[in-house]
Amino acid sequence: MGDASDILGAMLRLTASGLILCFALAAARIPWTTSRLAGSPEPPSPYRLVRAFESVKFKNPVFIAQHPVSDRVFVGEYGGRIYSFSPANPASTRHLALDIGRGLSAFSFHPKFASNGQIFVFSHADPKIKKTEGQRSRVSRFLVEPGSDPPRFRRESETIIIEWPAGGHNGGEAIIGPDGYLYIATGDGTGGSDLKATGQGVDDLLSVMMRLDLDHPDPGRNYSIPKDNPFVDMPGARGEIWSFGFRNPWRFSFDPVTSRPWVGDVGQDIWEMIELSFAGANHGWSVREGSHPFHPHKKAGPGPFTPPVVEHHHTECRSITGGYVYQGAKFPELRGAYLYGDYEYGKMWSLRYDARANKVTAHHEIADTAVKISSFGVGRDGSFWALDYATGWIYELERRPPSAPAPPFPRKLSETGLFGDVARHQVAAGVLPYEINAPFWSDGARKERFFALPGEARIRFKADKPWEWPDGAATVKSFTLDMEEGNPASARRIETRVVLKQDDHWVGYSYQWNNEQTDADLVGAAGADREFTIKDPSTPGGFRKQTWHFPSRNECMFCHSRAAGFVLGITTAQMNRGAQLAELERAGVFHKALPRPPAGLPAYPDPFDAKGDLTRRAKVYLQVNCAMCHVNDGGGNSPMLLGYETPLEKSRLVGEPPIHDTLGIAGALLVAPGDPGRSVLYGRITRRGNNQMPPTSSNRVDDSGARLIHDWIRSLGPRTASGGDE
């Protein structure tokens, strides 16, 4: 590590287990004082989300609304409970208003709640039904308990308005519209790419918006169909349908001027959509994803396709959350704008639309947050709330306060203060090298790893949880590729990636090395790709092309998410190798002594050590390469849990059918014991392009990792008719 290592009093010692950082035992850590990483290369967003209502917290909240009569705020949890609290009382506690005993998506108060006490609840996932088959989504009406204060709803008062099959993308929401009818938005009812081929059909209640008359119910059911619904006279069609072609509508609300519903429609592979629906509209799924072909061979439903008003590529938005046209007084500059956001990246946008001209007149990103936005809400005082599904807190929108002018963000690696000599790749004093037990696959690149703590700041060590880092901390990885396969002498540096914490928020930045290997330039927010020609005797012609992907800022945080602990490689189980933890402790990196000797702390095995247990090696490979998404609240749109500590029988992996694409595999399972050829997990790992895993930042299959997973699947049971191979 050159001069910096001498200053640190550190040396690198080569042992059988690899490189281990060893500090001179008598020397304290040298502070990192050269950081120039502050601010942002992009202008700060004009708004931000800040915590509101500090005294109340929820478990996986999915909906928020203010009571139409009192000031109380109601919050619904995914597990089926609805609570209320008083926003005027800083010490307010939450009170249970209703427990429906089923999975909950949304609720809404009847516009005449003051006189009829009705609330509508959109629910799914009956816990008594263990398999997806047989699950039903439903919209129910509940009545308030007379005289209850705080308000409570009687579970026994439930009236089921309507039910339909569930099973994946269920939607949805149910709202009494401006015309007095009940509107219900539903998804395609599968976990994959419209596996039931229902997106373009109008003969069932999936992928649609329904419109029902509750005031004049037909005999034998709790609603009737309005006579002006667009498909009432079409043979074989369900008259309840008002519009169709949605994949998974997640939140809708009515425009106060046009009375048309704005819909946030969650996409599949590439696009997220904001739709403005109307009677008879065909929004395209799954012949289209947004305005782009998806399954063009499928039969289209009635009517021309209605393109989305706005669509976002997955590089900037991955799970859209619909919002509201803002009408409050708190932000007069936003009045009349539709405000919405993204669950995965935590971004928010404002959208202005001229309905007469049928065009967008303004569209801006207004906030960039770390919040897993599951839903928005509007207070009567003009507050605009956002729920954080991951933490359970409620946030509210506020204008970003003015800040003092900051120096320009470093556009070159040499300007960051991380390196003393960039060309020689020598880090600055106080920047510490480290090694890990199980590296993430990076398309064959070798990596050098460092971290830096500002001044005297320290890490709060956690044995079984993510470490807690101070503001100003940075993690650094430099990637090197051999220009001749297997020849280290041909290596060239490609990228140095920096993940920085400031204002309690992590952000990732990439620097691309120049051809002279003397410095690296900051990559733009959208990321970039660069193609290299690699000399490789094993390929036809002796050369192959390799595309290196520099991730966008959003892609960095897609993996480095709150659910994954933000910092992926620097955990106890990864860092517990040789004397590394003990030496970091002696150097004063941690806020206090280790809770026990390293031998008693978690440690990952080397996934490619053939002497180790095969299942443990496979599980750590999945932990490192997949679990950043496939953990609770991680954003992976599959229920499987791939954390290393998750028992296999609770992982929802082995013997489970895929809820997404089967990859054309007959009898496909996520993991078919003994049969890699029927295992979608193995199929995704061994492909690049559509349906690849990991889904981003990789253009080359990890052959060693694929072989490891192949052999592990084979070990789980006898070979079957497919032969257990591809």
In short:
This protein has 726 residues and is mainly beta. The chain has eight helices and 38 strands.
Characterization of this structure:
The protein is mainly beta. The chain folds into 3 domains: 26-41 and 410-603, no CATH class; 47-155 and 162-399, TolB, C-terminal domain (Neuraminidase, 6 Propeller); 605-720, no CATH class. It contains 8 helices and 38 strands. Strands 31-32-33-34-35-36 form a 6-stranded antiparallel sheet. A 4-stranded antiparallel sheet has the order 3-28-27-26, with no helix packed on it. A hairpin with a 5-residue loop joins strand 26 (373-378) and strand 27. Helix 6 (614-626) packs across helix 8 (703-715). The longest helix is centred in the C-terminal third of the chain and has 13 residues, at 614-626. The radius of gyration is 27 Å and the shape is globular.
Q: What order do the helices and strands come in, and which of them pair?
A:
Blueprint: H1 3-8, E1 10-15, E2 18-23, E3 47-52, E4 61-66, E5 73-77, E6 81-85, E7 95-99, E8 103-109, H2 113-116, E9 118-124, E10 136-144, E11 153-165, E12 173-176, E13 182-185, E14 208-212, E15 241-244, E16 249-254, E17 261-265, E18 271-276, E19 288-289, E20 292-293, E21 310-313, E22 320-325, E23 338-342, E24 347-354, E25 359-368, E26 373-378, E27 384-388, E28 394-399, E29 419-421, E30 426-427, E31 431-434, E32 446-452, E33 474-482, E34 491-502, E35 505-513, E36 520-522, E37 528-535, E38 543-550, H3 553-559, H4 572-575, H5 580-586, H6 614-626, H7 680-685, H8 703-715
Antiparallel strand pairs: 1-2, 3-28, 4-5, 5-6, 6-7, 8-9, 9-10, 10-11, 12-13, 13-14, 14-15, 16-17, 17-18, 18-21, 19-20, 22-23, 23-24, 24-25, 26-27, 27-28, 29-30, 31-32, 32-33, 33-34, 34-35, 35-36, 37-38
Helix pairs in contact: 6-8
